[in-house]
Amino acid sequence: MTKQMNQSDRMESDDTPVTIDIILNVKPSCREEFERVAAETIAAAEMFEGHLGVNVFRPDDSSSLQYRIVFKFDRLSNYRLWESSEIRKGYLAQLNRLIVDEGKFQVLTGLETWFTLSTNKAILPPPRYKMFLLTWGIIFILINFMNRLVIPNLSFLPPPLATLLVSGLMVFAMTYIIMPRVTKLFAKWLYPRNHDAQQ
Question: Which residue ranges does UniProt annotate as crossing the membrane (predicted)?
Fold first, then answer.
C-alpha cells in the first residue's frame, strides 16, 4: 500500500479538487481491528482543512474482505497536507499490518472528480472527449442562463466583481449540483462497459 501511495507524486500540479479511491483486502482475522483503525484514520482526516467527506463500502461477501474507501478534498494542496502528515503515516503503518497486499490507490483531479459514480468498483474516468463534450454542453447552457437571468441583475457591481461572482456561481453549480446529477443521467454513455458488466 505504501508503494502505491507514492504514485500520487505523479499527480497534476493544479490546485484542484481531488477524489481519493482506495481498495484494500483485509486479512480475515483482522477485520475488527481494521474497522477500528480505519475509523480512527477517517476521524483524523476529517480534522484537516479541505476534507469534504468520506464513503466506506464494506464487503458484501464475507469470503472476500475487500473494503473500498473514497474521500474528497477541496484542493490538492490540502490533500497534500494530510498525505504528508505524521498522523497519517502512523495510521498507515497500522493498516499495512492488517491487509493482504498493497491494495489499489487512485487520486483523481480536475474534471475527473466531476465524473465519479457511487459504486463499489474502482473509479475509471470516461474518455476525455466524452468529458469535454458533456462539460462543454453544460457550460453552454449555464452561460446562457447567467446572461439572461443573473448578469443583468449585477449591473450595479464593477465588472471584475460581477465576473468573479458569476464564475464562482458556475463552478459551485457544476461541482455540487449539476455534474453529480448529469453524470448519473448520462452514466450509460459515459461508462458503457461498467453498465454492461452490472447487467
Answer: 131-151, 157-179
